[in-house]
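A further point concerns the way the authors explain their paired sequence and structure data. For illustration, here is how one protein appears when written out as sequence plus structure tokens:
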Amino acid sequence: MEAADEKDLHLVGEYLGRHQRADLAERVRLGQVAARDTRRAERKKRLTAVFSSRWAGAMTRASEDQYQLSMRCLYEERAGLRRAIRTIAGRLAVPCGMRSKDRVRGYTDQNERVQKQRRMHVLKARLAIVEHKIAAGRPSIVAGGRRLARRRHNLADARITEAQWREQWHAERLFLTADGESGAPHGNYTITVAPEDGMVTLVLPEPLRHLANAPRGRYRLSCPVRFSHRREEWLDRITAHRAVRYDITCDPVRGRWYLDASWTADTIPPPTEPITVPLDLAGPTSTRDGRLRAAISDLITVAREHDCAAIAIENLGFTDARQVGREALGRGRRGKTFRRTVAGIPTARFRERLRGMAYHAGLVVVAVDPAYTSRWGAQHWTTPLQEQVRKTTVTRHHGAAVAIGRRALGFGIRRRPGVTVRHRRMAARRATGQAVSLPRACGTASPLRTAGTPTRGGKTRPCRGDRLALFPGPQDRSEGHRTTRPDHGELASSG
């Protein structure tokens, strides 16, 4: 990009960013009100007098999205602080070195107990601040990022100069976002990308129309752009004049400008089960992104090879572990290492990537309750799987994968009494659904309690690795179970 283009984009981005930040401040002052009381139409009309209505619509939409996101973050922070305080209070109620009737462990010694008492006071002070912000409906929002703002006071630790910090700060506060519009030329009138040559033009605000080098007050960049990822989908949309949103961002560290295109994907009819995409996968930070893509690619490949229609996963999350991990996940070097491992699990990134890649592969992602999948899978399905699979050692994780698949299909996990065992000469087994349930006399212990399953929580400790179940499509409903690729988690095809 030429220097003149960079200068003009900075002028446009700073001008729009200043007005967008003013609109965001006004939205925060309104507080938590109903949608009809946000005065968005009034704010948009006032901004339209300064520049076009399309820029004004993008600004008011961005302000509302940022405000709602900040409020959700406050709610999550409040929930996390309450959990941490509740955990510390429960352990403080138990004498040092002892356990309560509910198996709550007290702190090791008096020194640790005193330190946790101090920490609880700090957490309560933070909770009071968060409660006040929620009650007032005014979250703290830093345009440009709070982390970058704090770096200004630690330039030596960040290993950057003040000039470099200011350059990054101004780049983060630029506003060059244009929402798409169906029916507009190539899906967006404010920022338009020509499909023939990739040339970019954008509408200039009224006070900056003297910079225009194209008809109708538009500015044309000197360099073309080209999309590599999902280019065919982008071309299909802009040639049909369907809405596409564009974001122009600046990376001063690399000295580059980027144009991001985004759009709303067409929804597919969901199955009878609810669809979510949580998945936990550990890995080093330097190679995490590559491992995430490789794991999902392998999963989709296995699903296609076995004509599967859906992927079932446990609805596991580590929100509680991250929020109260310092209080409940051990102490010392071992506890710190475990907490660091839990905090490094890239759940959000892998969740979004799995959803997108599975959708474009024509697969459905189904999340199920993780309660007792490990225990019941090992108890009821490890032995039958081992009888069918001779060359592979079946573990309790393979049994848990079958339990996940059965739960996602709406079947029970436990094999009911009365199921016939495998015949020694004939490789046939009666299906679990055909077994006759035997009545249990009143007053007898349930199989769950007899097996020694914990009575509180309803969940077992998550095992190392990820367990997924693949569902065959309507054309392949075999009765057998197949396990494959245990190194990427336990995958099972369940009919």
Remarks:
- The first helix runs from residue 3 to 30.
- DSSP finds 16 helices and eleven strands in the chain.
- The chain has a mean pLDDT of 77.
